[in-house]
Amino acid sequence: MLTVGVTGGIASGKSSVCKIFEKHGAKVIDADGIGREVVEQREEVLSALVDTFGKGILTEDGELERRKLAGIVFDDADSLEKLNRVVHPFLTEEIRAKIQNASQEGFSGVIVVDAALIFEWNLVEIFDTIVVVSCSERAQVERLRERDSLEAGEALSRIHSQIPQSDKIARADFHVINEGGFQDLEERADHVWKELEGMLREREGGQT
Asked: What would the CATH number be for the domain defined by 2-197?
């Protein structure tokens, strides 16, 4: 089995790359979705967030108001760090559990973890290799405005709350540029997939 972390700046197209890998037979784990579940469904996490950021992040029904929390953490680096410290241990635990479950169920191929914040959450040690997807900041802003109905300033705040794409590229093993259409992205992702298949074959050969 080969575990691959796919990351990149917000709205860079990493989830599209993961879907391409999935078509080739990869098992995809949505770390960002797990992060949302951890924050919203685990009482100890929600309690810690309220202790850290106050009851203003809750709805009248006592549930997390994600937009309010986002408004706090994306505008302040210290607040974002506090959020990561609360969520990180639980997120890491859940991702490791899903990878282990896949192995126990007999999956021996490529497991891809779709995670925007691999470096921010210090998840590097979980993976055998890391793929970063990048695009221009202008493209990120346009996609965020269309996808999430954000104003340009809000989009930029979210982009700048993450580690710069150049730093992620420098720390990754593979780089997929997403500046053209889907066909171009697919060709670039397919090239990386062949490399991942080669790594998996080498690993399997070393275990025989």
From this structure: 3.40.50.300
3-state secondary structure of 131: strand
Q: Average pLDDT of the chain?
A: 92
Q: DSSP secondary-structure letter at 57?
A: G
Q: Virtual CA dihedral for 48, 160, 17, 119, nearest 10 degrees?
A: -60
Give domain limits for the chain: 2-197
| Secondary structure of residue 109 in the 3-state scheme | coil
pTM of the model: 0.86
Phi, psi of 11 (to 5 degrees): 65, 25
Please identify which residue in the block is written with the tokens 């575990």. 3
Q: What pLDDT digit, counting tens, does each position of 48-78 carry?
A: 999 999 999 999 888 889 888 988 988 788 9
Q: How far apart are CA 177 and CA 187, in angstroms?
A: 11
Q: Which residues, other chains included, contact 101 with Cβ-Cβ below 8 Å and sequence gap of 6+?
A: none
**What angle is formed at CA 16 by the lines to CA 188 and CA 95, rounded to 5 degrees?**
110
Edge-to-edge strands of the sheet including 2-8? 27-30, 110-114, 2-8, 129-134, 174-177
pLDDT at 208: 45
For residue 194, how many other CB atoms are within 10 A of its CB? 10
Separation CA 194–CA 25 (nearest Å):
12
Which of 117, 111, 102 is closest to 171 using CA atoms? 117
Query: Six-digit token pair at 69?
Result: 């929390």
Token pair belonging to 194: 């062949």
* Local structure of residue 173 (DSSP, 8 states): S
